[in-house]
Write a structure and sequence with these properties.
Elements lengths: L1 H74 L17 E7 L6 E8 L5 E9 L5 E9 L11 E10 L1 E6 L20 E2 L5 E2 L12 E2 L8 E4 L3 E2 L3 E2 L6 E3 L4 E2 L24 E2 H4 L11 E4 L2 E11 L2 E4 L2 E13 L2 E4 L2 E3 L33 E6 L9 E5 L3 E15 L4 E13 L16 E6 L17 E8 L2 H5 L4 H14 L35
Parallel strand pairs: 5-9, 5-10, 5-25, 6-11, 6-26, 9-12, 10-13, 11-14, 15-17, 16-18, 17-19, 18-20, 19-21, 19-22, 20-23, 21-24, 22-24, 23-24, 24-25, 25-26
Antiparallel strand pairs: 1-2, 2-3, 3-4, 4-27, 7-8
Length: 534
C-alpha cells in the first residue's frame, strides 16, 4: 500500500510540471504575439510615413519643376501674355501646367504682375501621383541692367588727356540743335595740313564735360599738355588726380573727394540682333565676318545689330533713327564719320526710307543726334583685356561708346559727341608717341551731350537670370490667400479654380471681387530664402 501511495504521488507531481510548462509556453507565445503586433504596427506606420514623405517630396520637386518653368518664362526676352482684363486692378496673371509622369503627377504655375514692373509674384503647385499637393509662393525680380551716363569720359582703371579738350553740348537744345559749319569739301569738316578731316561746332560748348575714374592708383587720372576740362575731374581718391602746369580744369574742387560712379555691367549682345554683315554689301565682309568700309557712305536703318571687328576708313556711316550696335572685337574709325541722326528727310521734308545702302549726300544734311547711336563693345572670346577702340585722324563719332572692358583711344584731331565708358581711355596723343606733332593744343575733343544724360540704355537688352527675392511653402493654400490684398485674392481665386479643374488654362473665371490692390508690391519682401538651385 505504501508503494501505491508513493507511485500515486509521483504521478500527480509529474502532471503539475506539465501544466507549468504549457503555461510558460502560452505566456511566451502571447508576449511574442504582442511584440510582433507592435512591430507590425510600427512597420505599417513607418511605411505610411515613408509614403507620405515620398508623396510630399514628389510634390515638392514637382513644385520646384514648376518653379523652373516659371523662371524659364521670365528669363526670356519676351514676357508671356498676361490676362489683364480679368482683374479690377488691371495687373493680371499668366498660367501654365505640365504632367511629369503618366500616373498623374503634375506641376502648375501662375506668374502674376505686381505694381513694380520688374517684379512678379509666383504661385506654384506640385501634385504627386497620389494627389498630395505642395504650394510655394514667391517673388521674382526680372531686372535688365541699364546705365545712364553722367560724364563725358569714364576710364574705370585709367584715364589720360593730352592736348585734348573735354566739354559739354546739347544736341536737343530747343533753339539751336547741334550742327557743324560747312567748311571745306564736306559739310561736316575740312582738311587740315595733314589731310585730316576736322569737324567744327557751330554751337558753343558748356562746362558739363565731367571726367572720372574709379581707380585709386596715383596718376591714374592725368590731365597733361595744355589739355582743358570744362567740368570736373573726379578720381577714386584725391591722390589719383595729376594735373600738369599747362592744363586747366574749370571746377577747382575736382579731385578733392572720391568719385561716386554707378556699376557698369558687362556687354552681352542679344540673340535677336541682326548680323551687320547681312545688311552690308558682300564686298565689305571678309571670310571671318569682319566688316570694313573704305571710301563708302551708308545708312543703318533703326534697329539692333551685331558685328565682329568693324573698320571705317575714309567713309561715312549714319543711322536712320535709333540704332544699337553690339561689336565683339575691335572698332576702328579712321578719317571717317559715324553718327546718329533722327529719321532722315529729303529736301522737301518728307521722311526717307532709304534702300539698304544709299549715299547720304543725296539727302538733306541732317541734325546730329548722338542718342540715336549706341555702340556697345566687348572683347572677343578669349581676350582678357580687349583690343583698342580707335577713333583717329580727324574722325567724328556722334554717339554713346560703352566699352567697360576695352581700351579706348581718341586722337589726331578727332571728335566724339555723346559719352565714353571704357576700361582705359586716352584722349589725344602723348608727346612720346609716333606722329605726336600732328596733335595740336585742343586738337582732339570729347563733348558730353546732355541729350543722353537721363536716357537709360541697356548693355544687355535680354533679361538676365531672374533673382528670387523670397519664397514661402504654404500648408493651406486657401488660408494663405486671406493674408493678401483684394487684388491678389482675386488672382488666387482664379488660380484655385484653375488647379481644381474648374477652369481651363487661358480662360480664367475668377470670382467677382470689387476693389483692387497691388498684391505683392515688392516692399518688405527682401530676404527669406531661395529654392534649391537658385
Amino acid at each position: 500500500m505504501f508503494h501505491r501511495l508513493a507511485l500515486t504521488g509521483f504521478r500527480r507531481l509529474t502532471n503539475r510540471r506539465g501544466a507549468a510548462f504549457l503555461l510558460a509556453v502560452y505566456f511566451a507565445s502571447l508576449m511574442l504575439l504582442l511584440l510582433g503586433g507592435v512591430s507590425l504596427q510600427r512597420t505599417i506606420v513607418d511605411v505610411r510615413a515613408s509614403q507620405v514623405s515620398r508623396d510630399v517630396h514628389q510634390s515638392y520637386w514637382a513644385a520646384d519643376a514648376a518653379f523652373d518653368r516659371a523662371m524659364t518664362v521670365l528669363r526670356a526676352s519676351q514676357l508671356p501674355a498676361f490676362n489683364d482684363s480679368a482683374f479690377s486692378d488691371g495687373l493680371g496673371c499668366s498660367y501654365g501646367s505640365f504632367t511629369f509622369n503618366e500616373t498623374g503627377g503634375r506641376g502648375d504655375y501662375a506668374i502674376c504682375k505686381t505694381t513694380n514692373p520688374d517684379q512678379f509674384a509666383v504661385e506654384l503647385m506640385g501634385r504627386s501621383p497620389t494627389a498630395t499637393e505642395v504650394w510655394v509662393s514667391g517673388l521674382i525680380e526680372r531686372k535688365i541692367p541699364q546705365v545712364t551716363l553722367s560724364h563725358a569720359v569714364v576710364g574705370l582703371e585709367d584715364l589720360t588727356l593730352s592736348k585734348a579738350t573735354v566739354g559739354g553740348v546739347n544736341s536737343r537744345h530747343p533753339t539751336h540743335p547741334l550742327t557743324f559749319s560747312t567748311v571745306g569739301f564736306a559739310p561736316d569738316g575740312f582738311n587740315d595740313g595733314f589731310g585730316y578731316r576736322i569737324p567744327r561746332l557751330t554751337q558753343a560748348f558748356n562746362d558739363k564735360g565731367h571726367i572720372a575714374t574709379k581707380s585709386t592708383r596715383q596718376g591714374a587720372l592725368s590731365i597733361l599738355n595744355h589739355s582743358q576740362v570744362y567740368g570736373a575731374a573726379m578720381a577714386g581718391t584725391p591722390g589719383t588726380l595729376t594735373v600738369d602746369s599747362t592744363a586747366t580744369i574749370t571746377e577747382t574742387a575736382s579731385g578733392t573727394t572720391s568719385v561716386v560712379l554707378t556699376e557698369f555691367p558687362p556687354v552681352q549682345e542679344p540673340s535677336t540682333a541682326t548680323p551687320l554683315q547681312q545688311v552690308m554689301p558682300t564686298s565689305f565682309v571678309d571670310n571671318r565676318g569682319n566688316v570694313t568700309m573704305t571710301g563708302q557712305s551708308g545708312i543703318l536703318e533703326q534697329g539692333t545689330y551685331q558685328a565682329k571687328d568693324l573698320t571705317l576708313e575714309d567713309s561715312r556711316l549714319a543711322t536712320n533713327g535709333p540704332v544699337d550696335l553690339f561689336v565683339v572685337g575691335s572698332l576702328t574709325v579712321t578719317r571717317s564719320n559715324f553718327y546718329g541722326t533722327p529719321l532722315l528727310t529729303d529736301y522737301y521734308g518728307s521722311v526717307v526710307i532709304p534702300s539698304s545702302y544709299l549715299s547720304i549726300m543725296k539727302l538733306a544734311y541732317p541734325d546730329y543726334s548722338p542718342p540715336n547711336l549706341r555702340i556697345f563693345i566687348r572683347p572677343a572670346d578669349g581676350e582678357a583685356q580687349g583690343d583698342w577702340v580707335r577713333i583717329t585722324k580727324g574722325s567724328l563719332v556722334a554717339g554713346i561708346l560703352y566699352a567697360p572692358a576695352m581700351r579706348v583711344k581718341i586722337d589726331r584731331k578727332s571728335m566724339l559727341l555723346g559719352g565714353v565708358v571704357s576700361k582705359t581711355a586716352q584722349i589725344g596723343l602723348l608727346t612720346n608717341e609716333l606722329e605726336a606733332n600732328t596733335e595740336t593744343f585742343e586738337g582732339t575733343k570729347v563733348y558730353y551731350d546732355q541729350a543722353v544724360s537721363n536716357m537709360p540704355f541697356k548693355p544687355r537688352p535680354e533679361s538676365p537670370l531672374p533673382q528670387v527675392l523670397f519664397y514661402h511653402i504654404n500648408k493651406d493654400r486657401r488660408a494663405n490667400a486671406s493674408n493678401r490684398s483684394t487684388g491678389n485674392q482675386e488672382r488666387l481665386a482664379q488660380w484655385f479654380n484653375l488647379v481644381d479643374g474648374k477652369a481651363v488654362v487661358g480662360t480664367p473665371t475668377p470670382a467677382p471681387v470689387s476693389g483692387g490692390g497691388g498684391g505683392y508690391s515688392g516692399g518688405g519682401c527682401n530676404g527669406g530664402g531661395i529654392l534649391p538651385g537658385y
